[in-house]
Amino acid sequence: MDAMREKNGKLAAYAWPGGYPILYVTSDGDVLCPECANGGNGSLARTENDPDDCPNDGWHIVGCDVHWEGPSEVCCHCGAEIESAYGDPDNDKGE
C-alpha cells in the first residue's frame, strides 16, 4: 500500500496521469472511498494490522484499484459514491 501514498502520507484518491478514481478494498471485500481509507469520517481503516487487530474485521485495507467503468461504487462506511472513470456502459444515457 505504500506505493499508493502521496508525498503527504495519505492514500491517493486518483491515479496519475489521468486522474482516474481509486477505491480501496477491505479484508471483508467491502469498498472504501479515499477519505475513509485515510481514516476520515470516523473510519478505523488501516493498511497494516497490529498484533491485537483482527485481520478480517473489515477495516484492514488489502488492496486498491482504479474504478474504470461501471456504476458508481458506494463506500461501505460513509455512503459516498465513487464514480467510475468512463461511466456505466449499461446506462441508457451512456454516462
Give the tally of structural domains.
1
Biggest sheet character: 4 strands, antiparallel
Strand content: 15-25%
Low-confidence stretches: none
Strand and helix map with partners:
Layout: E1 14-15, E2 20-26, E3 31-32, H1 34-37, E4 61-66, E5 73-74, E6 81-82
Antiparallel strand pairs: 1-2, 2-3, 2-4, 5-6
Describe this structure in words.
The structure is a single chain. The protein is mainly beta. It has one domain. Helix content is 4%, strand content 22%. It is built from 1 helix and 6 strands, in the order E-E-E-H-E-E-E. Strands 1, 2, 3 and 4 form a 4-stranded antiparallel β-sheet that branches. A two-stranded antiparallel sheet has the order 5-6. It starts with 13 loop residues before the first strand and ends in a 13-residue tail after the last strand.
Key features of this structure:
95 residues, mainly beta, 1 helix
Describe the structure concisely for a colleague.
Helices cover 4% and strands 22% of the residues.
